[in-house]
Amino acid sequence: MSVVPAGVLPGGALAVEEDGRGAAELGPRARMWPALVAVYRAQLSRARVARIPLLFVATFQSIGIMILMRGVVDGGGEAESVVAGASVLVVAFVALNLLAQYFGQLRASGGLDHYATLPVPPASVVLGAAGAYASFTVPGTVVTAVFGCVLFGLPLAHLWVLVAVIPLAGAALAGLGAALGLLAPRPELATLLGQLGMSAALLLGVLPADRMPEVVRLARDLLPSTYGVEAFARTFGAHPDWAFVAGDLAVCAGVGVASLAVATWAYRRAAVR
């Protein structure tokens, strides 16, 4: 049996390049958008089976809250707030609560090490996971909004505004949920923070603001989902003020960019530990 030196093999680990360099160069890192799409598709296929039952829970929860509020609220601006708040609550349940739990468990189980070894930008991991979780909120939010409009006798003409409300409110809440999950030292604490955030979205988003104390109203203004609720609720009027709607959506977009940036920083911080 003849022995061939490893250095002469073209693909051998000890092959020496002709230009004299001893180490081969690594390939370039993946670009942002292709990496984001790849992470999004992977997360979407992974969470499709596990998260669909929870989406039904979120939808039924919001519908049940509206049925309970129907005995207290007759109509008018309060009904608009209830329907808008219950619709955005579906987004909060998935994008805030479940995403906080997911990243908390991923950090505790060492799953971040897998993503850290991939040649993808950290932002694509956070944005891909956030986008996948937010995508599951679309059918539940639409069903909740339609049911609420029929229940309270509100017009259905401007439900198309959900095309902007869902991704912008979802981005703000998903970034917050990811940051909570990545910064929490224990997965149990991440779950607790996610549930507290969803409870805040429930109490401060569904209940009419006119009946709240001034201190609670100030806390409500600090919640990212509030501006998605306000933007959606304004469209139920006969002549919506689209400037205010656009302003609320712009606030959602700004908070979304900031929260996703914090989540990306938290991912880098957790991945190197």
Description:
With 273 residues, the chain is mainly α. It is 73% helix and 0% strand.
Mean pLDDT: 82
Q: Helices and strands, in N-to-C order? A: HHHHHHHHHH
Show unreliable segments. 1-27
Distance between the termini: 49 Å
Total DSSP E strands: 0
Shape: elongated
Helix content: over 70%
Q: Beta fraction of the residues?
A: under 5%
Largest sheet: none
Q: Any idea what the radius of gyration is?
A: 23 Å
DSSP helical segment count: 10
Helix and strand content put the structural class at mainly alpha
Task: Produce the secondary structure layout.
Elements: H1 32-70, H2 76-108, H3 112-117, H4 122-135, H5 137-152, H6 162-183, H7 187-206, H8 214-221, H9 224-234, H10 242-271
Keywords:
273 residues; mainly alpha; 73% helix; disordered N terminus
Task: Give a short summary of the structure.
Helix content is 73%, strand content 0%. It is mainly alpha-helical.
